[in-house]
């Protein structure tokens, strides 16, 4: 059963708005980014984590003054649903060790001088100021004509699915001009609340024996119920390249995705394979200083345009 929230949709007015290029209905993409965690105790001390840094989702979102084609640059409004602590758009140029970056060894090699490097924060400010409407805003502003909404959650997978449902049902009104770009690594397993230890699990009790239940895939319900005419892009990550394409093909068919982005853990920053009903395309980054997301988003934007031309609005 469709459980659409009865309150006013975030995007009730969106089909009336035009995109940055002045033509066509407004395009909105929901980007999920980062990995979910699975708590092991109700009063959680320990949890199962996921490797995802959120680099893919953050990079795909940005607006850059260069020719790189990311979502904001391509005229999309972006809802960025990401896990606290993982990358945010524009911030990947910030240092990994901000404290160490503040110090510099002096010439006499004997002391360390504090020196605040402003170049990183300046780079972020400049990138953002090039795009007039970018900024993290609260949900109450969603109905205005904004370009970037940032939703930060501590990514327990159940919470993630609930927020995605709210976003998707709100975007339903957009029909084919809505896009889902599901780059988050969502856990496939969880500990059901009723069988979860209430307090911290005691090591004195010996080896831990725990049974994890399977998380139902949200892709089916997203496609069938929440956003039936949206352009849906899911991701497939494997470490064994022998099974990667087979699994991506299966996801395309089973969940009726418009595209599946297949990537291998070790090469995910250099190459991805875009799997659609019309075949498979390997997408490489142009050079070692560029991102694979740039050619990838360009391809997806073209495919989304074709989808919008051939899919009827739901009203
Ligand atoms: O963040 P980075 O470090 O830059 O890395 C990017 C990435 C490798 C995480 C990204 O490119 C990627 O591949 N993300 C999906 C990884 C993944 O979790 O794959 P999966 O096989 O578990 O899931 C496949 C798809 O099903 C995903 O789109 C996921 O959103 C969805 N899913 C997963 C689990 C679940 N219970 N329900 C789902 O719908």
TrEMBL record:
It comes from the Eukaryota. GO terms for cellular component: cytoplasm; nucleus. Residues 171-287 form the DNA/pantothenate metabolism flavoprotein C-terminal domain. GO terms for molecular function: phosphopantothenate--cysteine ligase activity. Belongs to the PPC synthetase family. PANTHER family: CORNICHON-RELATED (PTHR12290). This is DNA/pantothenate metabolism flavoprotein C-terminal domain-containing protein. One of its GO terms (biological process) is coenzyme A biosynthetic process. Coiled coil: none annotated. Pfam families: DFP (PF04127).
């Amino acid at each position: 059963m469709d459980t659409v929230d009865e309150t006013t949709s975030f995007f009730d007015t969106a089909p009336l708005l035009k995109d940055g290029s002045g033509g066509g209905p407004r395009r909105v993409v929901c980007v999920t980014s980062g990995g979910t965690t699975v708590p092991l105790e109700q009063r959680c001390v320990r949890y199962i984590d996921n490797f995802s840094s959120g680099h893919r989702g953050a990079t795909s979102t940005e607006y850059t003054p260069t020719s790189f084609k990311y979502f904001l640059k391509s005229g999309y409004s972006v809802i960025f649903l990401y896990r606290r602590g993982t990358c945010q758009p524009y911030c990947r140029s910030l240092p990994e060790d901000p404290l160490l970056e503040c110090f510099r060894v002096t010439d006499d090699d004997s002391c360390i001088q504090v020196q605040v490097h402003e170049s990183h924060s300046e780079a972020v400010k400049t990138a953002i100021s090039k795009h007039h409407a970018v900024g993290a805003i609260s949900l109450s502003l969603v109905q205005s004509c904004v370009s970037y909404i940032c939703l930060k959650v501590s990514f327990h997978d159940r919470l993630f699915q609930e927020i995605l449902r709210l976003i998707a049902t709100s975007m339903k009104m957009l029909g084919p001009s809505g896009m889902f770009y599901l780059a988050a690594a969502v856990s496939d397993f969880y500990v059901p609340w009723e069988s979860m230890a209430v307090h911290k699990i005691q090591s004195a009790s010996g080896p831990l024996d725990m049974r994890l239940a399977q998380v139902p895939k949200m892709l089916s319900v997203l496609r069938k119920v929440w956003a039936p005419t949206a352009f849906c892009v899911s991701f497939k990550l494997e470490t064994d390249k022998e099974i990667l394409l087979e699994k991506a093909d299966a996801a395309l068919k089973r969940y009726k995705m418009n595209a599946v982005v297949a990537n291998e853990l070790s090469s995910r920053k250099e190459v991805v394979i875009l799997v659609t009903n019309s075949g498979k395309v390997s997408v490489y980054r142009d050079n070692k200083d560029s991102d694979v997301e740039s050619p990838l988003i360009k391809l997806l934007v073209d495919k989304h345009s074709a989808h919008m031309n051939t899919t009827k609005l739901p009203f």
